Structures are given as structure tokens and as C-alpha cells.
């Protein structure tokens, strides 16, 4: 993967390499390590060159695990990896260390990924670049101990697939790391991210796994990139994911004949590319595709769901070509993440949920005039639901209305606030509540009225959930009211003159 791909690229990736600013000595590091990853994990790729905080995007999106792309050397011939191949971003606690600790503290983890399209085509993938197996192994170990991670990913494509010496060095180094981890009491997994056809790995990708078997290197996850097929065929990207993974399953069954069907499926990972991939619109992965893949992945018990990349999970460039920062299709921000995120817990489909906001969230109006704001809703998990909108909090002299009052999550309504000259000057919170079968959410618009001739109620506003005793006063709809006895939930003015509330007149 790289940033801007050529016609033969397989996963958007730019120079992003996690590696060691100084090589770790074999055996270095504490025996205490991060907890192993879940048996099923959603870990989208994070583009590390953008300057964004991985912890912040993980928090905003709901993706608790991230695959950090990429680690590579600064130049061919080097044995020292850096994030993004940038010597200013060494493998150290000062580079992404605090972000990774925060992600781990929140119950997630990161998977540092070596390689990627740029590294694999410039000789800067560490096993292609460095001729010393021990130094390659030491670099892997330094990443593990510096960030206290439980898995490393090897993104191997294009030229690196055909570099047989590099393939052999990489797997020999992986075997050394696995021996070191076992001696240190660490659980370290290795994933290989490889390009695929719609029927499984091509011979070059399969050769990487065969070499791992020959060298005794354990491959925990074979992760296929199910996009950028470049075969000029008609594609249903979800169906193609399933046929590609089935082909991989059959290939793994021959490489690991002693493994059960469940164990083989548990070795498989799938990485999608949301929206339009590098080939173009003929290879478009839709939200409907994502939901199909999610259900299939849960049913098969595969190990990893991922996509390239977290920063693309938004609809800011509908109708556009493949890009690093948007999907090229109509969507809400984090739509694909919200579909895939429940995979980590592994058992249930995403629960339906939504958000509601007022935009702008505040405004000022002269008494006698009107103000409007947009009430925006978005799907935050699962399917779009029908929402019923209501509004409250408008003071005397202000009439609030919504259009429409019923909509699908993802659509917007307009809140209109008409004032009269009798409205009292002041600032009021107007609440818009959206109700759905799964629950409700409320957005607040702060309205400031100026130049009004009305008076302001100074008594505490009546609240439906509060308990009132005899003698307590409240304000409600421009009047003061006094409780005659204990009450809760009884709206002033609705129980008549013999009711609990005595009308003390306008404020």
C-alpha cells in the first residue's frame, strides 16, 4: 500500500515505516508485553505520514485497534527502519509512543506494519534493504519492545514479492524473533499482508508463505488485499472477497495439513479499500458490500478485518478517484468503521445508533424576527433508522417548529424560531430530541433574543422529573406557579383550578 498508487499498486501506502532508530539487541526488553490481540480483530490502516494523532482518530472513529503504516529504511542498503522512512521519525517513545500507550490504555493496540508499496518498489523494505538477518531481527525486536505490541505486519507486494533473497532473509529474521519472544515470555504474532486475485494468492504471494514454512517461521495471519485486481472484469467486491478468501483457505490447507478448518479460517485476514479503489469505479467497495463482508467474516471466524485506510473513511469527495483522504463515494464520516468495529468483539452485528446536532449551535435574533438552524443527523452504527423530532424549551413569545418532523438518520431538518415583540430578552436553550426504536439523542440550540419587551421569569423552571412540595414555586410558559402539596410529573396548567398547581399569574 502507498499514498498515490501506480497502476500496479495493491494497497495505498506511502513511505511509512516503523523501525528502529537504533537496533535492539537480541533478547532486549521486558518479558512483560501488551495483551495478545483478540481472536477476531478489526484493525484499519492508519496513514502515519499525515501528522494526525492515531489515538485521536481511534477515539473519534471507534476503531480500538490500528495497523500503523509503514516502517521502512530511509535508503536502500540501510538496516535501520523509520516511520515513513523519515529519519526524523525513529522508532522511539517520542514517535507515536504516547498515542500508542493511550490506545492500549483504552483496551486497544496497534500493529506496526513493515513495507508497503513505496518501500517495496524502492528497495527500502527492511529485508530487501538489509543483508544481515540478525540486524533485521533486532529491528523487529526493537519495535516490539519500544511500543510493547503483540503483532507485527509485513506488507509485501510488487518488487518485494520477487526478491527471493529478501523473502528468505525476512522469514529467517521472523523465526529469530519468535524464538526470542518465546524465551522472553512474550506473545508475538506475525501477519503477512499480500495482494490477491479473486481466487486466492498468486504464485509469488504463495511463495512467501511456502518460504516461511521452510524456515520454520510461524505465520499467524495471512491477510489478503481484496481490491486493485486490475483484471478489467466486472466486480461485486463483497463476493470477490469471499472467493479470494476461499481460495486462500484452500492454499493454506495444503501448507498446513494438520490444521482444522476452524484453525485455517482463523489464520485469514481481509483488507478492503472503502469506496473507489485505484483501478477506478469498476472496483467500488460499497457500504452494502461492507455489511455483507462483516456477516460473512463473523460466520467464517476469520482473524482480521481491515481496510485502507482510516483517513479515507469519509464522503468528502463523492464521484472522485481513489485518494488518501476520502473514499470517492457518498457516505458519512466513519461509516465503514462503524460497520466493521463490532468484529473485534466478534459476536453481534452493529447496533443501530445515530447522532443529532444543531448547526450552528447558537444564534441571536431581534424580537419580532426569526432564526433558523439545521438539525443534522448521522448514522453512527448499524442501519439508518426513522427518527421522530420534537422540540421544547421555547420561552413565551417564541414559537419553535421543525420541518420535517420525521426523517431517516443521515438526513437533516430545519428548526425555525419565530419571535414576537413580547418575547423577553435573554438567552434560552432550545432542545431538539430525535427518537428512534433504539433510543433518543438531543441537540441543544442556544437562542439569544434582543430588544424584547416581555419580562423574564425568575423562578426555577418546572422540570418533569423533579419532586416539589407544598409552597415551592416554579416558572412555566411565562407564568409563576405554586405547588399546593407534594407532586412530581404533573405539568402546571393541565390539572385545572383544583389541581396541584396554583397559577400566580404572568412573570
UniProtKB/TrEMBL annotation:
It catalyses: Random endo-hydrolysis of N-acetyl-beta-D-glucosaminide (1->4)-beta-linkages in chitin and chitodextrins. GO terms for biological process: chitin catabolic process; polysaccharide catabolic process. The keyword Hydrolase applies. SMART domains: ChtBD3. GO terms for cellular component: extracellular region. Residues 40-330 form the GH18 domain. GO terms for molecular function: carbohydrate binding; chitin binding; endochitinase activity. The keyword Membrane does not apply. Its EC number is 3.2.1.14. Residues 1-33 form the signal peptide. Keywords: Carbohydrate metabolism, Chitin degradation, Chitin-binding, Glycosidase, Hydrolase, Polysaccharide degradation, Signal. It holds the Pfam family Glyco_hydro_18. InterPro entries: CBM5/12, CBM_sf_5/12, GH, GH18_Chitinase, Glyco_hydro18_cat, Ig-like_fold, TAT_signal. This is chitinase. It comes from Streptomyces tsukubensis. The lineage of its organism: Bacteria, Bacillati, Actinomycetota, Actinomycetes, Kitasatosporales.
